[in-house]
From TrEMBL:
GO terms for cellular component: extracellular region. One of its GO terms (molecular function) is chitinase activity. This is Chitinase-like protein. It comes from Chrysomya megacephala (Oriental latrine fly). Gene3D superfamilies: 3.10.50.10, Glycosidases.
């Protein structure tokens, strides 16, 4: 209704004023003003982009967590596609790197100011007996978040080293790659006859991250933010290499484009 719209505009104006004042204050101290955009936030509804973009050095778009088991307990899907997924009525708009950066760029945000947030983790759902056993997303009839890992201990969230350990040691866990570097990778195990032990995981690994970095470089975007470094393999427990996702980003960004 009109009252809600008026309140939304008021909040947006207040945020605009805050960003402008912070930016002026930071620039007096030779600081940098960066804006982090959470997943599934409507840029045109919550931000007056034309009024803030000259005050912002970078806009980091969180290109992950479009689907997660807390918000979408009954349906598992790719959490961080690079390109738009096959269109159907069940999938949300603006749920890929390509769609997000184009949304901001269409509002006259320069490419060099757009930073893409990439995850160092995966999202895990419990598959039920009713879930499609081939694991192809979107997977219906999931049963909320899967159990957390031994390190993160957060239901529905697994760090990259926790996922790597599962891939190496969990029986009957099938990994599905993304040869076109479009949607992302996932691994799954259907539930048994009693409805137990089913799991479906959408995640990033060094190979999928490398493909994302190439996409970001090829489109001349401003950079990459890792969310977050504590969920990378900081101890090298997977294959002996410490911080493999961070290293992949650094290596791919530093390569000569020619």
């Amino acid at each position: 209704n009109s009252k809600e719209v008026s309140q939304e505009l008021e909040y947006r104006d207040q945020l605009t004023t805050l960003i402008q004042k912070l930016s002026i204050n930071l620039r007096e101290r030779k600081g940098i003003m960066a804006l982090n955009i959470l997943p599934l936030v409507d840029s045109q509804k919550y931000y007056d982009v034309a009024e803030i973009i000259d005050y912002v050095d970078f806009v980091t778009i969180s290109a992950f967590d479009f689907y997660n088991p807390s918000r979408n307990p009954k349906e598992a899907d790719f959490m961080s596609p690079t390109k738009p997924l096959q269109n159907n009525n069940d999938r949300l708009p603006l749920t890929s790197i390509k769609e997000l950066y184009k949304d901001w760029h269409s509002q006259n945000v320069p490419r060099h100011k757009i930073v893409v947030g990439i995850a160092a983790f995966g999202r895990a759902w419990k598959m039920s007996k009713k879930s499609n056993n081939n694991g192809k997303p979107p997977v219906k009839h999931t049963d909320g978040p899967a159990a957390g890992g031994p390190q993160t201990n957060m239901p529905g969230l697994l760090s990259w080293p926790e996922i790597c350990e599962k891939l190496k040691h969990d029986s009957k866990l099938t990994r599905v790659t993304d040869t076109k570097a479009k949607s992302g990778i996932y691994a799954f195990r259907p539930a048994d006859s009693r409805g137990n032990f089913g799991i479906w995981i959408s995640y990033e690994d060094p190979i999928s991250v490398a493909a994302k970095v190439e996409y970001i470089r090829n489109h001349n975007l401003g950079g990459i933010g890792l969310f977050d470094i504590s969920l990378d393999d900081m101890h090298g427990q997977c294959n002996g290499e410490k911080f493999p996702i961070l290293r992949t980003i650094q290596f791919r960004l530093s390569r000569d484009l020619s």
